[in-house]
Amino acid sequence: MTTPQQQMFRFPTAAKSAAPLRRNVVIEAGAGTGKTTAIVAEVLKLLLGNEELAPERIVLVTFTEKAAGEIADRIQSAMTEVELQFEGDRVRWPPDSEKPLFEVRPEEKDAVRRACAKQLARIDGLKSQTIHSFCQTLLRQYPIEAGVDPQFKIIEGFERSLLYAQVYDAWIDDETRLHPAPEALREWEALLHHAGYLFLA
């Protein structure tokens, strides 16, 4: 189910489809189908279609840090490519494509040129983040509403593995010794017997 402000577009080949402008856009497609190209085109439409729209108002969320960095670089490169075309007859992106995803009409050329110069000067404000990084940003901004310590930190490596082990051991202890339920004990006994271990209640 989607709201009027949130639409999902599934593209067999993402780069071949241009989604209408929405507040929220989800692009879902297989590897190598042009998801990044489609995202770049959508951001170009937003930023060059409205020079008052600050890049930091757009949040791009991806699954990996590599993809987040790639999208940010591609958007800046695409905008630079657009800027270099204003002296020619056509302004479009990708510039060598027979079916560009972004194209400027002649009567819009001056306005888009101004928007391009303005947006390139502040493109570093564009946020391209992983899901985890985006959520961390929200928690930093609204710790009280989220019910977390404002000074929370992200644990990694050995420290994270150690915490997992401590939580798991505490859960096992609670399930089997501190607050054992008869039915749960029978399930644990069956599980450990099947695994080849001796379970002592």
Give a description of the structure.
This protein folds into 2 domains: 141 residues, 3-Layer(aba) Sandwich (Rossmann fold), CATH 3.40.50; 39 residues. The radius of gyration is 25 Å and the shape is elongated. It contains 7 helices and 6 strands, in the order ββαβαββαβαααα. Strand 4 and strand 5 form a beta hairpin. The chain is mostly helical and 201 residues long.
How do you describe this structure in short?
The protein has 201 residues and is mostly helical. It has 7 helices and 6 strands; from the N terminus they run ββαβαββαβαααα. 49% of the residues lie in helices and 12% in strands.
**Class derived from helix and strand content:** mainly alpha
Mean pLDDT over all positions = 83
Specify the CATH architecture of the largest domain.
3-Layer(aba) Sandwich
Q: Biggest sheet, in brief?
A: 2 strands, parallel
> Helix content range of the residues, please?
40-55%
Number of DSSP helical runs:
7
Could you please say which CATH topology of the largest domain applies here?
Rossmann fold
Arrangement of strands in the largest sheet: 1-2
Low-confidence stretches: 1-20
